[in-house]
Amino acid sequence: MNNLLKLGTAFSFCALISGCGNEEPTIEFTPEVEEVGQQPVEDNRLLEPVMLNYLNSIKGNKTVVGVHNREPNSDPDKWTEEVAKTAGVWPGLWSGDFLFSQYDVDSRLQMILEAEKRWKQGMLINIMMHVCPPTTEETCGWNDGGMHYELSPDEWSSLLTDGGDLNTVWKDRLDDMAFHLDYLNKKGVRVLFRPFHEMNQTLFWWSSKNETEKTNTPELYRLTHDYLVNEKDLTNLTFIWNVQDFGTLEQDLVDYDPGSDYWDLLSIDIYGTDGTMFTQTKYDAMVAKAGDKPIAMGEVQHLPTPELLTEQPLWTFVMSWSELTYEHNSNSDIRTLYNADNVVKLDEMPGWTDGNKVVYEVPVSENPIIEDKIIFEEEIVGWTAGQSGKVEQTIVDGGDGHNNVIQHNYIAGETVSELVFDEAQDLSDYQDGTFQFDLKIVTEPDGIAGWAMKIDCGWPCGTGDVALTDNLDGITPVVGEWQTYKFSVAELMTLNSGYALTIDSVTTPLVIVPQPWSNEQIGVVIQLDNIKFSAAEVAEQPEESTSLVVFEEEINGWYAGQADKVNQEIVDGSGDHGNVVQHTYIGGETVSELIFDSAKDLSDFNDGTIEFDLKIVEQPDGILSWAMKIDCGWPCGTGDVDLESNLDGVIPEVGVWQTYRFSIAELLTLNSDNPLAIDSVTAPLVIVPQPWSNEQIGVVIQLDNIRFKRATDEVTPSVDDMVVFNDAVSGWSAGQTDKVTQEVVDGGGDHGNVVQHTYFGGETVSELIFDNPLDLTDYQNGTFSFDMKVVEQPAGITSWAMKIDCGWPCGTGDVALTDSNEGIAPVVGEWQTYTYSVADLLTRNSDNPLTINYVTAPLVVVPQPWSNEQIGVVIQLDNIVFSAE
Description:
Blueprint: E1 16-18, E2 26-28, H1 50-58, E3 64-68, H2 78-87, E4 93-97, H3 102-106, H4 108-121, E5 124-128, H5 153-160, H6 165-186, E6 191-194, H7 216-231, E7 237-244, H8 249-255, E8 265-270, H9 280-290, E9 295-300, H10 306-311, E10 315-320, H11 324-327, H12 331-338, E11 373-376, E12 383-385, E13 391-397, E14 404-410, E15 417-421, E16 434-443, E17 450-456, E18 466-467, E19 482-488, H13 489-492, E20 508-515, E21 525-534, E22 547-551, E23 558-560, E24 566-572, E25 579-585, E26 592-596, E27 609-618, E28 625-631, E29 641-642, E30 657-663, H14 664-667, E31 683-690, E32 700-709, E33 722-725, E34 732-734, E35 740-746, E36 753-759, E37 766-770, E38 783-792, E39 799-805, E40 815-816, E41 831-837, H15 838-841, E42 857-864, E43 874-883
Parallel strand pairs: 3-4, 3-10, 4-5, 5-6, 6-7, 7-8, 8-9, 9-10
Antiparallel strand pairs: 1-2, 11-21, 12-15, 13-14, 14-21, 15-20, 16-19, 16-21, 17-18, 17-20, 22-32, 23-26, 24-25, 25-32, 26-31, 27-30, 27-32, 28-29, 28-31, 33-43, 34-37, 35-36, 36-43, 37-42, 38-41, 38-43, 39-40, 39-42
């Protein structure tokens, strides 16, 4: 655990934040006021652990709820935004992950910048570490060759021994993560850091399946903690020790404990792994182990209810897992939890920089949210009880978490429990949704033979009597138990054909009918609670698929032909490939044949492509070439097509994954006698090692990512260049105008208008300053370039540099022009182009690196030295551009 001292001073942030992407508005942000003589923060170990302090302050009273943002790292706010749309409020916690695929590793910086953004918004920042074992490259797959790898005893020893081969690899791996975490450290962002989640989950490489080796996991945790804190000097990490809810939880909390000095917060992932969910036993075990430290639900798929959090109040935060949030909870469940009184709303959270927070508007869902129509929940509003001469109504304590409930005591027969609106209600918003209520039969006289319910619109208009057992969950009434009954409103409207329910004129939202209609009803006692109509959940409309996936991780809708000559397996393809199809040839005169379960019409792709990844694992000496084809019931099809005729000219190579793309339109022109019938494809892919002979025996190939793509899918969405200057000044102005004169002049040749700077003072620069800071995240993996002509260079100028600023000292720092991709020094009187990798520029100036989502000065040109030798410099600038590619 870090020993952190409280800092009494504040540090200032920028005055204006520009939201990421076009969908977010420019946000006004009030900066903190610095006192006269206040020193800037240089050592973040002095920063107070504000998030941990906050969690300690709310434990026992309230809970923060948030959501994890799983793959891809290129879209690190996907689920945060989605939950905000559903709940109508921002989550209080944002979570990201370093991840392990090549694409996600390449996008780690984007995830880190999102963490900074959400910190400024006031959210808790949680970062996980799904990363590859040190036995592989930095990137790997999810299965046995990657995240699920089982380290051998010798590999564990090498990993945990200082100076061991795997120990060295692991520390190199941590260096990359430390670089990203240090960016947040220098920005004052604290992180709830969960390095090895579910430490007792032996599925992952960091937790041995061997019972005798379980001590390796906490030792690896300690090694990682000490390296990041002591060697990399990361002072912004609040360490989370995390376990999963196995039946062995109580013992696991002993066996996997890395030591109380190594964790600040204890969390548990509750997936019902032991067959139960949010039990008091799990809660008590966590509270006992944590002592005075906070506890949290590190991951859940089923959200806890507000009532559960009241019963178990020490949970300081709950984080649901990305897409599982929607797979296991209704939109109503999500809204109810996020808006509960014992859940902290983001606008109630304090902000981590002396109360300052960036305020973003809550995104609005494309689907309107229709709130539940509550008939009864704690109190009666808008209706009265009918049959009051025969049924006594009181409000009583329902017990079992029900608090106030309606109790009906039948003092006469031939009657019902009837709730009558003060005036008829239009409930059309709920006609595709559900109606539900909680019912407890307290007393059931012997003469009661059954139970029914109904909804009326002015008798005889209504549903008529509907047996309670007809509810959607098939629940049968049990005396003495609270039970929930749910009905489809649409189905209720189909009943009682002569006088069917008119949903736009409901007079009586609920009638409970103990049967028969007689004096046998005398003595009935029932209780009712949580009576409500809910609108249908509006499913997000899936994006129109532009591709047909034949294989990606699993077989779906096809089988392998030639099974007597070709063995098919699903194996680990290594690297990013995960599960792949492997074919081993045990006979000759055969092919690798994928056959649809039934012929498919693929006409949507006739202007598109088929593509697939192929790795030739074994190629016997007799194999001379390779072909592919698509069949529509041989001899109908493309016929054999040489693999080398693919669109990218890829030549088959043994032992290497290669991607092959073919134009469907071109394939349709082949085999003139029996051309491919694209509306009746039987075999979407056939691979043919040639010749057709016994020379094929021993061939081994692997296939992955087999898909047909529409023409529209072949066009990669482009990001337009960000043009800072090309003929006209727009959106920026010149700084240092007291020392540098700026004009727009004719640059000669094809340059047209250019910016000219003439230096009449020293100790200055050519500085272009945006009118408002801009978010240039779209260009973080692209390039920055500009044309420059040195018109006049006084004798004292010894070199030239450039930089990009985000509010000095934040920025790239001075970068030599000779460090450009062109590697050239300025030549007086010549136009020259200078190009830089933005990703490379982001690694400069480790103390105050460039914040790409908050650029204040897109270009500063620095003639050196910083002195009066600069007087007389004249330069011209043109074509100043950020490009995404």
